[in-house]
Amino acid sequence: MTSTDVQPAHFIWTDDDEWAVTTARVLAMDAVEEAGHGHPGTAVSLAPAAHLLFRRFLRHDPADPSWAGRDRFVLSCGHSSLTLYIQLYLNGYPLTLDDLRAYRKMGSRTPAHPEWGHTPGVETTTGPLGQGIATAVGMAMGARRERGLLDPDAPAGASPFDHRVFVLCSDGDMQEGVSAEAGSFAGHQRLGNLVVVYDDNRISIEGSTELATSEDVAARYAAYGWHVQRVGLSASGDIDIPALSRALEEATAETARPSIILMRSIISWPVPGAQNTPKSHGSALGAEAVRAGKAVLGVDPDATFEVSAEAYGRATAAAREAGSSAHRAWTTAFRTWESAHPDGRELLRRLMDRRVPAGFDSARPTFDADAGVPMATRKAFGAALKAAAKELPELWGGSADLGDSNNTTVDATSSFLPASSAQPGADPAGRTVHWGIREHFMAAAMNGIALSGLSRPYGGTFLVFSDYMRPAVRLAALMKLPTLYVWTHDSIGLGEDGPTHQPVEHLASLRAIPGLDVVRPADANETAVTLWKVLREPGRPTGFSLSRQDLTVFPDGTDGHGSAADAVYGGYVRYETPTQVSSTGPADPDVVIIATGSEVQIAVAAARDLADDGIRARVVSMPCREWFDAQDAAYRDRIIPPTVRRRISVEAGISQSWHDLIGLDGRSIGVQDFGASASAAELYDHFGITPDAVASTARELMGVRPGRRPVSP
Asked: Burial letters for 188-209: b for 16+ Cβ neighbours within 10 Å, e otherwise?
């Protein structure tokens, strides 16, 4: 606020508030100038709004950034990371002036975009526009589900598990499609614990936003079912802070639907020459503009990173006292809840420790090979997921409108829907999420649920549509979140739906994401074993690639077969034909066939055929490359002996994932082009993914013809 702005009687804005806002603006300019690059304009103009949120509305404790009772703040416009970093610094979080000086530098706690787990007080990694607001919707979902698990009978607003999610977003967030998916879903779910402040500065890198959009954002969000307010500019051209304060009061009082405040601002206000310019969005302002801006703000134009020790001390002391007071009040309420809910207390402790309950392993289903009933791995996964859900109330999720195909509905009688919904099974804390056809949002919201901290989300669709999810999957890997993706119909084996629905490059593409585990089990028992491993070890995201078609259930530990229990190592000997035995033990195989998923049964059939020619073949089922690569060299060499250079990979997709394992002397059998509309059997034959093709390739590597035994060395 400036001298030209009138302060309403009900609104208090002190000299300390004005100092904090001015200091935030100056530090934003200085940090970008020091770095030589960055996004100063938004950080300069948003300073008063961010200060108002952190000082008047956000419940947080700088002394305990991970306090369970805190509100969450998501800076969806992650390019304006200084908006967040400077508030953390001015509120007494463990961030220093030197950290601001090190903005965007290697190893600093102030990277270009906020990174969760790297900087205290950052609730999620943002930067790709739209991800923050979509993730925040997931946080609001997680809060509602967690409250329903732990304190379902408390009156609204009276539970220690009630908290709000605040979002600061930009024009770019509004334009990204994922924010539309998120906005639609949040309105439908009536997520009243979500408050979004949209910085409507109408500037993007290329110029005015009118170059690219002319929609009425307020009308769009009203149509979604949100509570919508507008805040204009003050007389001086700054954000109208008294009006924003009133709007936030109304938004936080509205608990029956999410709220959005369209807040008008002028980028880089009040810097002369930089206001309302696209350059100030993504480039340093320059020394002269910074000096002019400081002069307008009434500070020394020649000083850099200058912060009054006295004013800073008052600011941080006030923020810490407010946080401590809120924390103490919450702790009292939490202790009362603990005393009244001993079972809930034990559940909460287990969830916070990320432990599975005692006896969890005994709940894993097993599937009988002797029954002779083949089963698609998607169906086996569905059965295993239901069994796990009985033991893990924190496990919840659904599908992008493909529940019956993905087998992701663990409880058809409990749907995550607002109390006002007339749908059967509607429950504000329901277990089954009907994501709708919103794959991108589903993945981003799963990140928010995981970040909320106490529950374990999953989401399903066809593997080919993982492309829609990829930006959020990548962020999950970057943050090491325990999200669980259920990707079914995972190859040309899905049949007649044709090349638009048949994934070919997807497995290799997903394996290329660092930190993502891609699991493609070979049969029902491998599916259950690997799912149990994932649920026991919630350290990173995992995607399951599951077959539409039925697959043989292999014998376990008999008739040349290994044990599915070894699938936890990522790769193991699934089948081996009889070997010659020397005085030093079993001889190495003549050829190693490495296969995944539905192609393992093809590899086993080929190995049996090769045995008739006296060729000793070992079939390695490799459900997860990432897990196998994590084993020590001794284990990997035992499974795939370095001395055996005749190696074949078999997977119904491009072969990019396998060149390092098969080596220069190996061969890959896969699909190097798009599929076609035909039956699964026709497609496998067309692309040469058959037992005969695998066996013929092995014979070529051995230099023998069918029916001719190899010459002993």
From this structure: ebbbbbbbbbbbbbbbbeeeeb
